[in-house]
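Fold Annotation — chain and its backbone
Next Lines — sequence and tokenised fold

***
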Amino acid sequence: MKLIAKHHAFTRLCTALFFIGLNLVSAPSASFAITVGEEYRGGIVFYVDESGEHGLVAAKKNISGHSHGMVAEEFTWYDAKAACTRFSTDGVGGWRLPNSSELRKLYQQRNLVGGFNDHFYWSSSREDEENAWYLYFYSGDENHEAKMANGRVRPVLAF
């Protein structure tokens, strides 16, 4: 009888541990909230969606260098895209040229992110084969320009 009682106690203990473990495995993982203005993955968060878990980070500075024949920090659209692809900071890669919608969001947070010039910044959005969209950071105006024109570059990273 004692053996059976010990067996039942052991069975109850194992069953309880099993269900506790099952609850731990199936419990939702702790979420984290990232806020606009926070430093994250080597840049500054400038947009966060409703979930607080996804958004966009801007590099802290414009990309240095320039396209052939242009002054410092000015790139053709083609060179701007390539420079963003090569860009890495704090060991984090995967940066890219923002599309026109992302660039507008970045413009809205330009004072928070900082380091922008009163110049136009390229987006990855194309108007046609010869032209791409830019946003002028002095006034907020956007337009398209020849892809061979000179513009500034601020890479972004999605999370």
Notes: The radius of gyration is 25 Å. Confidence is low (pLDDT under 50) at residues 22-30.
